[in-house]
Structure formats: C-alpha cells, structure tokens
TrEMBL record:
Gene giving rise to this polypeptide: dhfrIII
Pfam families for this protein: DHFR_1
GO molecular function: dihydrofolate reductase activity; NADP binding
UniProt protein name: Dihydrofolate reductase
Gene3D superfamilies from the UniProt entry: Dihydrofolate Reductase, subunit A (3.40.430.10)
Organism annotation: Roseimaritima multifibrata
Keyword annotations: NADP, One-carbon metabolism, Oxidoreductase
Length: 159
C-alpha cells in the first residue's frame, strides 16, 4: 500500500476554522491537484461537506459512520474499506480533516506538509509526531499574489 497524507497546518497544528480553511493558498491548491489527480482521495465526511462536491478525475472516498449518508460520485466507506481501496491502487492520499488524519496517519508512509508560516487561529487542530519520519524535501514558498500567507512545502517519509 502506498498511502500518503496531504496536510496544510500551522506549527501550532491549526488546520481549519468554522468548517473551512483559515487561509487562501492558491499555490497549495494547484499542488494538491497535481499530486492527487488520477488517485483515490480519502477524506472525512465533514471535509467532504466543506468541499461540497466530488473532486473531478479522482476516486472520492468519504469516511462516515452514518449508514444513510450518500452522495453521487462518492464511495462511502469505513476504515477497513478505505485501507482496502488504498491497497488496490498504486497510490492513494489521505486529505483530512483532523479526525481522519488521526485515524489514518499510522498507515501513511509519507506526509506532504504545507507548513503555514503564520500564527493563525482556528477551531480544528492536528499535530503529528515528526520523529517517526525523515525530511526528504523542503522548499520555501513566499506568499504569491493569490496566497494569504507564506509557506514551506515539506515531504516527510516514514523511517
Ligand atoms: N488544512 C488542511 O490540510 C485541511 C484538510 C482537510 C480538512 N481541513 C479542515 O478540517 C476541518 C474538518 O475536520 P474534522 O476533524 O472536523 O472532520 P473530518 O475529519 O473531515 O470528518 C470527520 C467525520 O469523519 C467520519 N469519521 C471519523 N472517524 C471515522 C471512523 N473511524 N469511521 C468512519 N467514519 C469516521 C465521521 O463522519 P459522520 O459524522 O458522517 O459519521 C466524522 O464526523 C474543516 O475545517 C476543514 O476545512 C483542513
């Protein structure tokens, strides 16, 4: 299984606020699209709700405990089924939110981390233990015209 997480967070672990993301990062969205296109993206039901529609060109996999929840163009799963889907593909991505990162990071071999270089408040946090990973790539991204904050793009590989 080749499963990787894609995460944007501040150093204090903020990943979201009021159901959305507390920054505007066009550079990051473009990278997200480039990385994930053609592969399954695995997300929590709340993250799906915040996006509001399946993302095109990718198998959209949504974790929910609800037997009734369904959406056109979405595969509804539990953890076991999400892992089976990841197993059946050359690559799959865990794309949040906090509950799903917590649940699935132990199965991830890599983390694509957009490190938000600003002290931003939020109501959803995810802090991860980098000691289990080694840094493979680190690149600075000053805030472009359509970015509200500067970032670093770091790729961490499980040791
Ligand atoms: N910065 C980033 O990179 C990033 C990425 C993604 C999301 N976000 C932000 O994160 C926030 C949402 O995160 P969140 O932690 O509140 O929610 P979430 O992880 O997106 O979704 C939580 C939901 O997932 C389902 N779930 C959780 N554990 C499960 C399990 N073991 N089995 C089956 N289903 C399970 C439940 O759905 P049901 O309630 O339907 O049962 C639960 O309510 C938003 O603000 C979003 O914008 C940020």
């Amino acid at each position: 299984m080749n499963l990787a997480a894609i995460l944007a967070s501040t150093d204090s672990g903020v990943i979201g606020n009021e159901g959305g993301m507390p920054w505007r990062l066009s550079t990051d969205l473009r990278r997200f699209k480039r990385l994930t296109m053609g592969f399954p993206i695995i997300m929590g039901r709340k993250t799906f709700d915040s996006i509001g529609r399946p993302l095109p060109g990718r198998l959209n996999v949504v974790l929910t405990r609800s037997a009734d929840w369904a959406h056109e163009g979405v595969r509804t799963v539990n953890l076991e089924e999400a892992l089976a889907i990841a197993d059946q593909h050359e690559q799959a991505f865990v794309v949040g939110g906090a509950e799903i990162y917590r649940l699935m990071l132990p199965y991830c071999q890599a983390v694509h981390w957009t490190r938000v270089l600003a002290d931003i408040e939020g109501d959803t946090r995810f802090l991860w233990d980098r000691s289990e990973f080694e840094l493979l790539h680190d690149e600075a991204f000053p805030a472009g015209e359509k970015d509200s904050v500067p970032t670093r793009y770091e790729i961490w590989q499980r040791q």
